[in-house]
Amino acid sequence: MKRGFSFSLPVTVVVSAIAFIYFCTVFIFIDRWLGLMTSPGIMNAVAFTGVAVMCVFNYGFAIVTDPGRVPSTFTPDIEDSEVPIHEIKRKGGDLRYCQKCSHFKPPRAHHCRVCKRCVLRMDHHCIWINNCVGHANYKVFFIFVVYAVIACIYSLVLLVGSLTNDSQNDERQSADSFRTVYVISGLLLVPLSVALSVLLGWHIYLILQNKTTIEVLGPSIFGWICPTSRDIGNGLRFRTAYDGISAASTSK
User: Fold this and answer.
1) Would you say the pTM of this structure is higher than 0.70?
2) Cα(151)–Cα(155) distance, rounded to whole angstroms?
3) Residues known to be catalytic
4) Could you tell me the mean pLDDT of each successive run of 10 residues in the chain, 252 residues long?
């Protein structure tokens, strides 16, 4: 399901940064180091363009794809033998019900204050895609981060290679004319490479642990910087250690 498009300043900043980095990488770093008309230059330009296209493609899909709506007819079936356990409220023990949306919430669904609705398997609301990261767009978001990390590191290597080549050829006067571009690119690529690598590592950990950001860090974004959290979810009705124990006891 696709969602409507609306103007977002963070998204505009990301698109502008992608365009700037792509232009500098292909037409400055590769050209000055390898030459765009040489075989190594063409190969690197094609490879980087491919990574950039995949990055933009997945970024666009992460923006326009609806993260997942809770069906208005959803009602937990406590007598369903295939669903032996249900998520309940911490206080009172009732089945999870959203007062704002006026319907029950499936496991791992949360109400987003920004989107003003419940989102299936909500991970977090990301301002950089102007959308929630949830059940339907988590994969494209993750793949976008993977390609973004590759693109940033790739561009950074080409930047360093271009600078090294200029210094070896003693092209000081020519290099001075591109100094501003090198400085701006470096200030963009270094923190982006670090931040996106950390983000990628974090989501790899979440995937391996079968968890979401909200379950590990808590529902409040202000508590995400804290080293501990009492809001770790137990993965009800998702593959967890419980399923292994239950299967083992059944086979005996």
Assistant:
1) yes
2) 6
3) 126
4) 72 96 95 91 96 95 90 68 48 68 83 90 92 90 94 96 76 67 93 96 88 67 50 40 48 50
